[in-house]
Design goal:
The protein is α+β, with helices and mostly antiparallel strands. It has helices at 17-67, 73-81, 98-105; strands at 91-93, 112-120, 129-137, 142-149. It is found in: Cell surface.
């Protein structure tokens, strides 16, 4: 093939260095965005799994705690009435409490810590006792569930 000046030019098969560099840059951008998306989804998945495990643990502890006969309304009501911060008193229990420790050791999760708080739900020295269970993971993800212990009916 001849160009305008009359010199012949041969076309070689293959890609030039500029074309190769452009392809590498485009491929790098696409690969980078895919890796960032994967990394973010992995982080979200781990966080959601921790939150799900914490919710399961909080629900189990709340159900087990309120089902135990020694944690009945009369005991909680008595403890709250004798607490120095009444009527807005809050009693807090952690793993030093033997009952909570007994419940917690039956569960097989590691890296979570439970706290149970009790207080009157209506800021008087009578009525339902609100039970709040907070479970926190090692990565500071916490879940709180609440329940009521009500006075026995007539």
């Amino acid at each position: 093939m001849k160009n305008r000046v009359g010199l012949s030019r041969t076309f070689e098969k293959g890609m030039t260095l500029v074309e190769v560099l452009a392809a590498v840059v485009i491929l790098s951008m696409v690969t980078g965005s895919v890796l960032v998306t994967y990394s973010q989804s992995r982080t979200t998945s781990v966080r959601d799994n921790e939150r799900l495990a914490a919710t399961h643990l909080a629900q189990t502890v709340l159900e087990e705690w309120t089902a135990l006969p020694e944690n009945n309304y009369a005991e909680l009501n008595n403890a709250l009435k004798n607490h120095p911060g009444k009527p807005n008193a809050t009693i807090e229990r952690d793993l030093t409490d033997p009952t909570l420790q007994r419940i917690w050791t039956s569960l097989t999760y590691q890296g979570f810590s439970p706290i149970i708080r009790f207080h009157y739900s209506n800021n008087t020295l009578d009525g339902p006792v609100r039970v709040s269970v907070t479970v926190e993971s090692k990565n500071r993800i916490s879940v709180s569930l609440h329940g009521l212990v009500v006075p026995p009916g007539p």
